[in-house]
Structures are given as structure tokens and as C-alpha cells.
């Protein structure tokens, strides 16, 4: 098993900028190539379908860019972020709350994911001894490493009592860019993202917003999103389908809300519009919404 103890000279310099930097780390796998930017992704363990689609869409849109995805190997958002990175050919760094020996990797349900991360040339790192079993009280300490490594932190979802809120606050304390995706206003998972957007976090609805935060210029040949050719996309909910039909020709947001009002209320329509944008099906350009 390729595991080694590393010291500060072997890890990214920004990790030494945090108030309580680690004294040592254990590592399996490899750091990303020099020049890569690190995006930490956090969110609920009880991930919603909306959060999963947003996570996959946003990370998938970073394929081919010098980005490494950092997360905590937990169930829900963490696992989705790591898997989306692997599926997109991106480097990813997992920081479990346990040691790194296969016998203690936590959660056990993600042991295969940890092995896939290593097989792809990515990395597992931990502050804990290799055979250390996880303790719940130690997870906030693990989260400081996730934020400390990052150039920016993306919050997918987080309830009022979620540990995600602690991680997001650390982003502010460590002077890291904080990014949040919007949610339905009555969704309990929206509490964290909406709170931090109100406090000044950047609202993210497309991969370009992440590239801007990471200061990575988009490629000239980067696709705008899914093509609108080929008929109505599959699996649209009623409000999404109504908006899609409305956008056969570009329309302003007010025109969309008025024209599709028979399908749903204004709040649900706005949520559907954001969902379509996250999937790359529509975009706003010069004050009008249009199919991508």
C-alpha cells in the first residue's frame, strides 16, 4: 500500500496560511499537477436530486481545466463531488475523518470510491495516524484542512444545523472565495446557501462562475451547454417543460413568468428556470433567456 508521511514542504503552501496548520499529514496517491487550482465542495449527506444534478453539472463543466476537486469522502455531496470529478477526468483529493488504511477508511460504504480515487492517480490525505478510527468530534478539524487546501469553496446544500455551515464560515475566516448554488425557497437544504449568498457569497449557476472564482480563463472552444436541437429534453418537470416551450424564442424573465404562469407559481417557475440553467439547457444573454 502506497502510504507515506509528508511534512509542510511537500504540501500546497496555502495550507500553512490557516490559523492551526497541520504538523504532518499522511498521504496515498499523488498531488495534482503544479498550477492546478483546488475547489473544495461541501454539502448535505442527505443529498437531494436537485443538489446531485447541480453538483454533477457544475463539476462536469470543469472537465479539461486545471482543477482538482477536494472533499471529505462522506456520503451524499462529498461522494457525488469525488465521483463527478473522476467521471470528468479531473484530479480529486479526499480527506476522510479516519486514517488512510483500508481497514479504517470511513465511511465503509465509500471504500470502493477511495480505491477508485487512487486508481485514477488522485489522492487521499489525512491528519490522523493510518489506523485511526474516526470520531465525530474530530470532523470540524478535518474540515479546516479541506478549506485550507482550497482556492475556493463551493456549497451545494446545507440545512440549518448542518456541519456544512461550519465549513462555509471557515472559508470566510481563511479568506477563501465562497460560492453557493441557489435552491427552492422552502427547501430546508437551502438554508446554508441562501444565508451565505445574503452575506456576500458568490451565486453560482454554471461552471463559468467557478472558473471566474478560480481565475481560470475559459477556453475559446468551450461548449455553451446542451444543444437545443433534437426536440424537448427528457425528464422535464411540468414547470420546466412550460418554460422550455416558452423559450422557443428568447424572452425576458418577466415574459417567461407571465407566459408560464398557468403551469406553476412564480417561486416554482424561478426554481425551474435555475434548474434548466444548471443543466445547460437555457442561458441568460443580453437581458433575455434563450435555449442553449
Structure in words:
By secondary structure, the chain is an alpha/beta fold. The protein has 2 domains: 4-213, Rossmann fold (3-Layer(aba) Sandwich), CATH 3.40.50; 238-291, Winged helix-like DNA-binding domain superfamily/Winged helix DNA-binding domain (Arc Repressor Mutant, subunit A), CATH 1.10.10.10. 33% of the residues lie in helices and 15% in strands. It is built from 10 helices and 11 strands. It has helices at 49-60, 77-87, 111-119, 139-149, 164-173, 191-198, 207-213, 238-246, 253-259, 266-278; strands at residues 4-6, 25-29, 37-42, 67-71, 91-94, 123-126, 152-155, 177-180, 202-203, 282-285, 288-291. Strands 1-2-6-5-4-3-7-8-9 form a 9-stranded mixed sheet, with helices on both faces. The chain has a two-stranded antiparallel ribbon with strand order 10-11. It is elongated and about 60 Å long. Mean pLDDT is 88; it is low at 224-230.
